[in-house]
Amino acid sequence: MSEEQIKSLEAEFEARIARDEKIEPKDWMPEKYRQTHIRQISQHAHSEIVGMLPEGNWITRAPSLRRKVALLAKVQDEAGHGLYLYSACETLGISRDELYDQLHSGKAKYSSIFNYPTLTWADIGAIGWLVDGAAIINQVPLCNTSFGPYARAMVRVCKEESFHQRQGYEIMLKLCQGTPEQKEMAQDALNRWWWPSLMMFGPTDDVSVHTAQSMKWKLKRKTNDELRQQFIDQTIPQAEILGITVPDADLKWNEERGHYDFGEINWDEFWQVVKGHGPCNKERMSARVGAWEKGTWVRDAAMAYAEKQENKKLNKAV
Ligand SMILES: [Fe+2]
Ligand SMILES: [Fe+2]
């Protein structure tokens, strides 16, 4: 293809995005668009899969049958989200095996929030309320993103995330209305999860490297700082209903801005966790790789069975 032809394809592509048309897998797209989407969608898929680990840990210890059923359903939803997203990513020309390999070898990233430990039952409440709450704020704009398979997957994912957020908040509410010890447990979970939740929106706008290009492709509709502010403004009144407080001495309503002001985020901690030095990075990866290896016989059996069926069909045809 000549340079001129590529330029005209690029111009047509940008025009389609400007018109809010969806880009589908078989459409022409710039290589950078394809690579950026592979990176973002696979990171998202990996986060759903690794995100099952801190909570899966509590399924056997959930305090009642009702809580167990709700948590089990939530963790299963996250597996489903991971699978939709791997499928969406495969339409861009990368195989599932390559994607798994990138995760297991440590080449691919997943959301750092899942490298923190879940110490008490209240952490399951705090995760649903804050982590799924932050995920919704990040993901709702993606229902309108330009790449068709990603946008369509997000519609269902967001509906399920809102169930996750509510079940988490309800756990917190119950604890906060319970004994002083239970309320203390809820406060302790909020203390530990608040700052990592704010970090989920990524670095501040002045240092975020992908923002400008991603905004152009509508892969991002609002900046990291805007989304973080939205999360804080939405969450503080919910904490007030619970009667617990976020661990930030600088948090204050700013009448003039119409938003909450908040304290400095510890970015050193953020980068340490991103680089693999968080409290549970190693534990999460060894659990994930271990599960993959233990599942080898299931995958082998499924392949052997499929082959057998295929041979049967062929023999009949002859
Ligand atoms: Fe999810
Ligand atoms: Fe979720």
From TrEMBL:
<dbReference type="InterPro" id="IPR007814">
    <property type="entry name" value="PaaA_PaaC"/>
</dbReference>
<dbReference type="InterPro" id="IPR012347">
    <property type="entry name" value="Ferritin-like"/>
</dbReference>
<dbReference type="InterPro" id="IPR009078">
    <property type="entry name" value="Ferritin-like_SF"/>
</dbReference>
<dbReference type="InterPro" id="IPR052703">
    <property type="entry name" value="Aromatic_CoA_ox/epox"/>
</dbReference>
<protein>
    <submittedName>
        <fullName>1,2-phenylacetyl-CoA epoxidase subunit PaaA</fullName>
    </submittedName>
</protein>
<dbReference type="Pfam" id="PF05138">
    <property type="entry name" value="PaaA_PaaC"/>
</dbReference>
<dbReference type="InterPro" id="IPR011881">
    <property type="entry name" value="PaaA"/>
</dbReference>
